[in-house]
Amino acid sequence: MKITDITVNRIRAPQGDNAKSFVGRPGRLLLQIHTDEGITGISEAGRNLKVVRAYLEELIKPLLVGTDPTRPRKIWELLTLGEGQQ
Asked: HSE (CB half, 13 Å, CA atoms) of 7?
């Protein structure tokens, strides 16, 4: 299994009991990690959206696309050491 794509999208959550009422500003990022076997992992982030989004898209995505998500130690090494520092 290989990671094929990582997508980051802003989301807004319904406020209160009225599903048509939304918070005024997007408050979360939805992170999806897609694999070549059709499995998608989902996570979220909620602070410093512009910074986190740029970090995920520009630094993390290039490191992880093509890696095996079933090898967390390898992923940890890539994230902590960076590519080329192994």
From this structure: 10
